[in-house]
Amino acid sequence: MSLKVIQEMPSPIEITKLMPLSKKGKRIKAQRDQVIKNIFQGKDSRFILIIGPCSADNETAVVDYLIRLRKIQKKVEDKIFIIPRIYTNKPRTTGEGYKGMAHQPDVSKKANMVEGIKAIRHLHIRAIEETGFSCADEMLYPDNYAYLEDVLSYVAIGARSVENQQHRLTTSGLEIPAGMKNPTSGDISVMLNSIRAAQVGHSFIYRGMEVKTEGNPFAHAIVRGSVNQYGRNFPNYHYEDIKYLVKMYKERDLENPSIIIDLNHANSNKHFDEQPRIAYEVVRNCHYDEDFKKYVKGLMIESYIEEGNQSIDGGVYGKSITDSCLGWNASEALIQEIARKL
Q1: pLDDT in tens, the chain (342 residues)
Q2: What is the DSSP letter of 145?
Q3: Residue 308: left (phi > 0), alpha (psi -120 to 50), or beta?
Q4: Is the dihedral of CA 119, 120, 124, 127 positive or negative?
């Protein structure tokens, strides 16, 4: 094979020993894990907001953002439970461009995945121990999950990964909720099949070992819109879309049936400033229909300190270098208004 070895990767055990989560951090994560599971089981009626930058490209800016989120969380904690997005791996449609902090911990330097693994673990630990937030990340590479297993409270499986067998099998072994996005084609049955695969047990190869899983009862749906063969975006968050998904959920024997609605991507036609409008429609529909309210557990929102996006060398603090995000002022207003409307 024409593969050139750059360096050996340390094992997850080595990285965890080098960068352990404190006892305080472990308590915070355990408490938050239980709350999140309670919400997906219907034991806690709070609304989840999975919110944060499209990609976590700068540790200082991300922690700054989380500190701001913590202040607003205290104001809305009776109605909203926030799970910050710290997405450290980014799928690229053509394979080109910034692939996330796991690849490139310093955007001004070349890729270095050993330092990247250390950087993303350090960021997630800081989030827990300095802000009290255990966070969400995308499981773009199933093997990499082992480096973050003890610090994450939520995992998303992306639209391009949801049909992949290794993603489905690995998700079946996670002990935290995992959102399975509908594929870019929008085929809801593919997403539901992926949820089913994640909820049952499997035997398979993982990191060079034969392993066995019992299934993840908290695997659930994330709807993010679709793209047709001509590149046009189509939303799937409207009342009729969700009612149809609820109907399909009811026809299947799936545990803890739940839906998270992604406000960006094809649902907003990649117009980041449409996210508040979509959020308010979703909340209104929760009041209109009991099934809608029962199944829709929350929203996924792309938000950062500065609105919009910039090139990788743009240099604006707290501004996305991948997809455009809501700025902080708009994000704070959105969170407060969602709480008021719930």
Answers
A1: 788 898 999 999 999 999 999 999 999 999 999 999 999 999 999 999 999 999 999 999 999 999 999 999 999 999 999 999 999 998 877 778 899 999 999 998 999 999 999 999 999 999 999 999 999 999 999 999 999 999 999 999 999 999 999 999 999 999 999 999 999 999 999 999 999 999 999 999 999 999 999 999 999 999 999 999 999 999 999 999 999 999 999 999 899 999 999 999 999 999 999 999 999 999 999 999 999 999 999 999 999 999 999 999 999 999 999 999 999 999 999 999 999 999
A2: G
A3: left
A4: positive
12-341 domain in CATH 3.20.20.70?
yes
Spatial separation of the C-alpha atoms in residues 191 and 2, rounded to whole Å: 35
Cα–Cα distance list, 101 to 6, 114, 118 (Å): 18, 11, 10
Token pair 């997630």: residue:
124
- What are phi and psi for residue 91, nearest 5 degrees? -70, 140
C-alpha of 9 from chain center: 25
Number of Cβ atoms within 10 Å of the Cβ of 95 = 7
d(CA 181, CA 101): 22
Instruction: Output the six-digit token pair for 207.
Output: 């990191």
Pairing between β-strand 259-262 and β-strand 296-302 as defined by DSSP bridges: parallel
Say which residues have a Cβ less than 8 Å from residue 88's Cβ, sequence separation at least 6: 55, 56, 100, 101, 102, 116, 119, 120, 123, 124, 137, 138
